[in-house]
Structure formats: C-alpha cells, structure tokens
Amino acid sequence: MSLRNSLKDPKRLMVIGQAALAVSLVAGYFLHRGGASPGPLADGLCGLLLGISIGMLLVALYRRNRTTGGGSGYAS
Hints:
The protein is mainly alpha-helical. The protein has three helices and no strands. Helix 2 runs antiparallel to helix 3 (40-68).
C-alpha cells in the first residue's frame, strides 16, 4: 500500500499520529532531563512533532466521523 493510500485510512492515520505524539513526548523528556538546556533547535523539533501529531489525530477523527455518519464512534 502506498503512502498516499495509507494516509486516507483513518485508523492508520490515527496510529501514525499517536506514534508521532509518543516520539515527541519521549524525546522532549530525555532532551530536557540533562543538566544543560537542549537549545531552541530541540525545542522546535519537539514542538513540530507535537503539531504534526495533533493535526494528524484531528484529521483522523474528522475522517472517521465522516465515514461512519457522525457521532462519537462509540456505542452508547
């Protein structure tokens, strides 16, 4: 499956967004754990990954709700 087709699937997009979120949070934790400040480049990269992951998760939720006909996607 090509990357373009895989990004159309809401489930796969959700997994990629969650992975980017996890990598960003773990990298931020380990970069800030040292005694010295990691610098603006490391902060920028963590912020970029957070932004990408939040955007991907929102797009995945939007696409999932469009394909299921609305609602939260959970059984009540």
